[in-house]
C-alpha cells in the first residue's frame, strides 16, 4: 500500500496565506527510488520551483512552513527572540520573517531572530547573523551577547554535518550537533518554549529522544513532505520546555 502510494504522483497543497498566492495551488511531484528517475524528479522538484517562484533562498523553507502549520511554532504575539542554528543560505530566516509579518503585523521583524552558520548569509531584515561554528564556545558567547536579556521562546536547528559518505560517522556527527543544540536549549530556551532539531537516523536518536523527553512535555519526530524521500533526515519537534530545566 505504502509503496503503491510512493510510486504514484502525489499532491501537495501550498498555503496561499503564507506563500502569498491567491488560491490553493496543487503541485504534482513524483517520488521514486531509482536514481535515474530521481535525477529526473529532482530536475522537476516542485519545491525547488516553488522556492524560485516564492523568492525563497532554499527549498528547505517549505519544511519550516509545514512544521509551523502543524505546530504553530511562530506565535501571533511577540514572543522574544528566535535562534536559528545552521541558517545559511537563509530559507528558514525568510520564513520566520514572513510568518512574523503575517501573524504579528508589519513592524514585527525588529529583533526577530539570531542566526548562526559556518557559511556566510546575506542579510535578512530582523535577523542578526553570526558566522561561525555553533559548537565553538566563542560563538556561543557571541550568541549569548546577541540574545542579551531577551527571552528565547523558539530554537531551530536545520544543521547538517559535512557528510563523509560513511553512514555511522555521519550519524554520529549529526547526533553531536543535536546534543549541542539540546545543551544550548537547556541554557537559553525559556520554560514553555519549543525546539525543532534536525537529525539523521542511525540508531542513537532513541537515546536523544529519551533525553529530550526529560526536558519537554511533548517530543515528536517529523518528516515533512518537502523533505526528500530518500534522505534519512527527520526533525524532533519538542514542545513546552519543562520549568526545572537549565
Ligand atoms: C541544510 S543547511 C540549512 C538550510 C537553512 N535552514 C535554510 O533554510 O536556508 C545546513 C546548514 O548547517 C550548517 N552547519 C553545519 N554544521 C554547523 C555548525 N557546526 N555550526 C554552524 N552551522 C553549521 C551548514 O553550514 C549548512 O549551511
From TrEMBL:
Alphabetically list the UniProt keywords.
Methyltransferase, Transferase
Q: What is its EC number?
A: 2.1.1.16
Per the record, the domain of life is Eukaryota
- This protein's name: 2' O-ribose methyltransferase
Q: Which organism is it from?
A: Spiromyces aspiralis
Corresponding gene? MRM2
Amino acid at each position: 500500500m505504502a509503496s503503491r502510494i510512493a510510486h504514484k504522483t502525489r499532491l501537495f497543497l501550498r498555503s496561499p496565506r503564507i506563500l502569498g498566492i491567491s488560491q490553493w495551488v496543487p503541485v504534482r511531484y513524483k517520488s521514486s527510488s531509482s536514481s535515474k528517475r530521481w535525477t529526473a524528479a529532482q530536475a522537476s522538484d516542485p519545491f525547488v520551483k516553488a522556492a524560485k517562484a516564492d523568492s525563497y533562498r532554499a527549498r528547505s523553507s517549505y519544511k519550516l512552513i509545514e512544521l509551523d502549520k502543524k505546530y504553530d511554532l511562530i506565535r501571533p504575539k511577540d514572543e522574544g527572540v528566535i535562534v536559528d542554528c545552521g541558517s545559511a543560505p537563509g530559507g528558514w530566516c525568510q520564513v520566520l520573517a514572513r510568518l512574523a509579518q503575517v501573524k504579528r503585523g508589519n513592524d514585527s521583524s525588529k529583533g526577530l531572530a539570531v542566526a548562526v552558520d559556518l557559511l556566510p548569509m546575506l542579510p535578512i531584515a530582523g535577523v542578526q547573523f553570526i558566522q561561525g561554528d555553533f559548537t565553538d564556545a566563542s560563538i556561543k558567547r557571541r550568541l549569548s551577547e546577541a540574545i542579551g536579556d531577551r527571552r528565547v521562546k523558539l530554537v531551530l536547528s536545520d544543521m547538517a554535518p559535512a557528510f563523509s559518505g560513511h553512514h555511522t560517522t555521519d550519524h554520529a556527527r549529526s547526533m553531536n550537533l543535536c546534543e549541542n543544540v539540546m545543551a544550548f536549549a537547556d541554557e537559553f530556551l525559556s520554560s514553555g518554549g519549543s525546539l525543532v532539531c534536525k537529525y539523521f537516523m542511525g540508531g542513537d536518536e532513541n537515546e536523544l529522544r529519551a533525553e529530550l523527553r526529560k526536558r519537554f512535555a511533548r517530543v515528536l519526530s517529523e518528516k515533512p513532505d518537502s523533505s526528500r524521500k530518500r534522505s534519512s533526515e527527520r526533525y524532533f519537534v519538542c514542545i513546552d520546555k519543562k520549568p526545572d530545566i537549565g
